[in-house]
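Quick illustration, no need to memorize.
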Amino acid sequence: MPTIDMPTNAERFQFHHLVTGWQAFGNSRFGWWPDFAIGGSENLWQQLLAQVTLQTGTVQVFGKRHSIPRLQAWYGPKPYRYSGETLPAQALPPLLDSLMQQCMERAQARFDSVLVNYYRDGRDHMGWHSDDEPELGANPVIASLSLGAARDFDLRQRQSKQRIRVSLTDGSLLVMAGRCQHEWQHALPKRLRISEPRLNLTFRNLAG
């Protein structure tokens, strides 16, 4: 697995890019496979929309609740809590369970749950955050499968401010492992010129 040295001051504000396969940035590991599900992505899209029930979520910011700029669904054996919202437990539909098994094999990790996010167009987005909820355990592994419109996905190192940008293309798989959720934040910025939708499946394992 290639290891990337920490950046100099001049490099901190330049975007780095991932290569196919596993890559280490200090104690954080990223896995990137742009063609993971490319062969049947259109068929997957139609089947998923038929099996998944999407809804508008809310988050609590400075004591006030706001609608999130995307649709979502949660499937797993336990409820999932983040930003003041609790998503109830639901059994995984057959297709999601099959995709989870494939992602487990590639990520070399165990998953039991998935958060589905549906971005209706480039106005829907996700702000800077880390998936570091206590329910996910000490060093959670997150596998992100993308279908539909390609969207930029940005990562920034908390201390050095090093940046990584990945274009999450149709059928791609990105895995974040090691100390990634402690050392990095990630975001999906707005892209107002994009009019097509995107589905994102983030597989994870709830601790306990």
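The helical segments are 41-51, 94-107, 180-183.
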